[in-house]
Structure formats: structure tokens, C-alpha cells
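Supplementary Note 3. Input sequence used for the single-chain structure prediction.
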Amino acid sequence: MKGIYNINKKMETALRSLNNSDIPKKNKDNIKGFVNFLSSKGVTVGRQYKYVYPLKRISKWLGKDFTKATKQDIQRICSNINSNPEYSAWTKMDYMVVIKKFYRWLYNKDIEDEDEWTIPVLVKFIKINKPKDAKKIPSDLLYAKDIKFLVDHCQRLREKAILMVLFESGARIGEILSMCIKDVTFDDYGCQINVNGKTGYRKVRLVGSSPMLSQWINSEHPRKDDKEAFVFCNIQNGKEGTQMDYNTLRKIFVHLKKRSGFNKPLNFHHFRHSAATHLAAHLTDA
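The predicted structure, written as C-alpha cells, is reproduced below.
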């Protein structure tokens, strides 16, 4: 399947990035070995993919072979993850799952009977607690005035448009990043976008973000005349028009937050929750 859902292509890219990275070769081999193990257990490519980048990042934070890590090393990494304001509660939980599952495999992979596998001492302290959206407090939610503030500090139309579209649509980040120009139809009322998500295709009406989206596509998009081009694409030299990925957008958010001095959480899950809360408030007032 094309775009963000072409997970096999995404996996190839992730593994190529892993091979080209500067982490220890032994760590690369163990990450690939873990992926092969997951594949042998029938884990989908989509789930396998979600382990590659986090493990590569963890290897960089660790600064040594996975097999030489101490409990103190893992505690330090977990502490840094949990104290990072750029990570949502779900992202933090995902990292804990990745670390614990990976080390369970790493320390037991030579034992054929998985029933005999044990959890290594260095990761036994990790508790996996599913986040509760109810814990989000209103003061941390994003509001229209917050989006305006962020948009005013954006340096490119692309960033302004994606912020506004994400907030107004409440769509998942994968739905927005996989959207092509042909999926956007402008009319007298704004525009309609076709997004493809977990429940299939659906139409979403945009009003407030429509002018900025139109300006981005028609003024600065490197492939504006190509209906098959991704709406939110890369624009740097050598990558013009290629699909923007999660990590690129995450970095944009990080730099925007630092540059603007914005003091609220700014991550994908929080963005979606804020959009849903904003919509619910309007429906209640109506």
C-alpha cells in the first residue's frame, strides 16, 4: 500500500538507516536479530518497525554494547525518557516496553524453551503503566490561541499549515502524513480532505486551516502540480517532494518549541487529544 502504510518500504528504510548509523556493529546485529525473532513469532512488520528506531536511539544514549549495560545505565536512560517533556505518556510507555522486551530476548535468546525465559535484573525494575488520558489537565491542553502563537513563530508555510490542519482536523499524524494533493478539494467553504486511517477512508471538513493549506500547496510546495505528491513533504535539497516521516516532524516540533519558548507539551498524542477536547467543547456550547 502506498505512503505511510507501505510498511514494508518503511521497514527497509529503517533497516538501511540502522546499517548506516554509527552505533556499535554488535548492537546493529542484535537489533536485527531481535527483529528476526519478532518475525518468527508472527509479529507484523508494522510492530517490528516500531522497535527499530527506538532501539537505535537507545544504543546511542547507552554509548556501549547492549550486553555491557548495567542496571544503572538502564535507570539513567529510563529517567531521561520519563523526564523529557517532548515525549507523550504513550511514547514513554512505548520506550519502556521496547527496553524490557528487547533485554528479555537478549539475555534469553540462547534458551530454546521460552517458558524458561526470565526477566534480566537490569530491566526488572521497569513498570509498564498504560497512560490515562484523563490525567491530562486543562491547563496543558492546546487551544486556538496556542496554535496562533506557534504559527506566528513558524519559519515556513509548511509548518504553519500542518499545525493548523492537525489541530482543526483532529486526525492521526499518520493520516496527515500519508495525505496526497489529490486528497484535498478546495471549495467555497474551505476544503475537504480524505484521510486513510484505522477505520478506512473518511472525509474531514477544514475551514480555518484551509487558507494556509492552500497557500502552502500553491506557493511553496515543490511538486504542487503532481496530484500524487504528498501534501506534507520534505523540502531540503536532495529530498524535495519525498514523504515527511514521523521523526522529521517530531524534530520540527522540538525546534519550534525551543525557538518560541512555548511551555506546554507539544507532541502528536497530546495534539490529537487537545483537538478532540476543543471540538467537544464547541459541540457542548452549540
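Confidence is low (pLDDT under 50) at residues 1-5, 278-286. The longest strand covers residues 190-197.
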